[in-house]
Design brief:
Belongs to the peptidase M14 family. The chain is built from 13 helices and 15 strands. With 491 residues, the chain is of the alpha/beta class. Helix 7 packs across helix 13 and helix 10 runs antiparallel to helix 13. The structure holds zinc ion.
């Protein structure tokens, strides 16, 4: 039997000593340094009314060939405003990039469509997608009226196509992106699983489960930069067996479907009494997740402010918020697919384990590395189940084993809702990234079965995935997890 407090004792591992040495070395490099966390002069909030959320009206999402992506952007000397464009995703299969453009960039690209690489507009009004998502949360039974995007007739958008689909058929009385039915938790009957929830509701669900179920403990693994607890749920379905499976979600704040999926996995592992023990963290990047609900739906990193050297990033603001928590682990730190600029959405942090969220998780995993036999990190989007390595295209010594597991996963996922996810080592399948949690777990902790899944979709809605997809995403991920457990543990 594992007791809760065993997970909480700070680790004295060599990893911490290495961290201290790395900290000492890197802190002298003068690339960037930590600023006072309470400062209010926040560059990220330039476009924010402090009482309201960032408005993405007239921001567009476009799809463009990777080779033409530079044509979208202004020449260097006029591109100071980094809120005007953001690369959301690269599709390495069809060699396209998905890019968010601010209102000015949108107007410029539309005006000069041929000279800017002929991008395809998926939406001209990202805010309409966010509004639809929010509307579902405010009242599940209300009809949600989506704002018609302001696009010129010569540039049809994805939203326009949806509108046109309905012309001449029937007038819909429900939003096409709204779930057709509500799926209630079998443990907490008032809780609807296919709906997005703010942090307080997520944590309430964990506490309610703990109150009503035996063998469940909710505990805090550590605190965020802004002082919020990072909560985990321990599910002891097989207390006499010391083996655990670790699952984390929402390392990247805007990946909301990872949270709803994690809640469904919690529900299913309890209801179906899967004979394994689990530690599940449904929201790892707690500050970032709260920020996506209260300020900026498209936020990715944590919220810790850092100063940037003017010399290193001369055309960027002096100060930016946030470290990419999946670039902050001690594995090929600072290598390809990460950034040393605090203003980059891939900022790796000043040194490995610099962020309190990553420190909390890595301490717990390191201390319990002999008990944790499998890990799964939930991300979105891309529809891919992946294994190490992320930092190199080189194969690991366990490649054949990983692929056997992933093939079983792929089959189970596809047979659930008919959607086939890609499988493979992350670096060779999708993109290279350094400082990844999955790679660190595999290489530094020696846990063979470390995986990462990129959930739905393939880029149309991306991070702003409509609520109607919460349920299929959750159910197929559960099927994949169940198949992996069967394959690895034979249970
Ligand atoms: Zn992610």
């Amino acid at each position: 039997m594992v007791r809760m407090n065993e997970w909480l004792v700070p680790s004295k591992s060599t990893i911490n000593r290495i961290t201290l040495i790395m900290f000492a070395l890197l802190f002298t490099s003068n690339i960037c340094h930590v600023t006072n966390g309470n400062s209010t002069n926040d560059q990220d909030d330039v476009h924010l009314d402090h009482q309201s959320r960032k408005d993405y009206t007239n921001h567009s999402v476009v799809k463009i060939s990777e080779t033409n992506i530079h044509l979208l952007f202004e020449p260097r000397n006029s591109s100071n405003d980094h809120s005007e464009h953001e690369i959301l995703w690269f599709d390495n299969v069809d060699r396209n990039a998905y890019v968010r453009l601010g209102p000015n960039a949108t107007a410029r690209v539309k005006r000069d469509i041929h000279r800017t690489g002929n991008p395809i507009f998926l939406t001209s009004n990202l805010q309409s997608w966010i509004d639809a998502e929010q509307g579902l949360n405010n009242n599940h039974n209300n009809i949600v009226h989506r704002t018609r995007p302001q696009s010129s007739s010569s540039f049809p958008t994805f939203d326009d196509m949806i509108e046109e689909d309905s012309v001449g058929t029937t007038i819909r009385n429900v939003d096409p992106l709204m779930p057709e039915e509500s799926h209630r938790s079998r443990i907490i009957r008032t809780f609807i699983l296919n709906q997005y929830y703010p942090l307080s509701k997520v944590y309430q669900f964990l506490d309610d489960i703990e109150d009503r179920t035996n063998g469940i403990t909710v505990f805090t693994i550590g605190h965020t930069h802004e002082g919020r607890p990072i909560k985990a749920i321990e599910i002891l379905n097989n207390p006499s067996d010391g083996r655990f499976i670790w699952i984390d979600a929402c390392t990247h704040a805007r990946e909301w479907v990872t949270v709803t999926t994690a809640l469904y996995l919690i529900e299913q592992t309890i209801v179906h009494k899967v004979p394994m023990n689990f530690i599940i963290v449904p929201v790892l990047n707690v500050d970032g997740y709260v920020y996506t609900w209260e300020k900026d739906r498209m936020w990715r990193k944590n919220r810790r402010p850092y100063s940037a050297s003017r010399l290193a990033v001369h055309n960027m603001p002096d100060r930016c918020n946030g470290v990419d928590l999946n670039r902050n682990y001690d594995i090929n730190f600072g290598g390809e697919g990460s950034s040393s600029s605090p203003c980059s959405y891939l900022y790796q942090g000043p040194h490995p384990f610099s962020e309190p969220e990553v420190k909390a998780v890595s301490d717990l995993l390191a201390k319990n590395r002999h008990r944790i036999k499998m890990t799964l990190s939930l991300h979105s989007f891309n529809q891919l189940w992946a294994s190490p390595n992320a930092f190199t295209t080189a194969r690991t010594k366990d490649h054949e084993h990983h692929m056997r597991v992933l093939k079983a996963v792929q089959q189970a996922v596809a047979s659930t809702n008919g959607v086939t996810y890609e499988i493979g080592p992350l670096g060779a399948s999708l993109y290279l990234g350094s400082g990844f949690m999955m790679d660190w777990i595999y290489h530094k902790l020696g846990i063979r079965d470390a995986y990462l899944v990129e959930l739905r979709d393939k880029g149309y809605h991306g991070f702003v995935l409509p609520a109607k997809y919460i349920w299929p995403t959750a159910t197929e991920t559960w099927a994949g997890l169940r198949a992996a457990i069967r394959m690895i543990f034979n249970v």
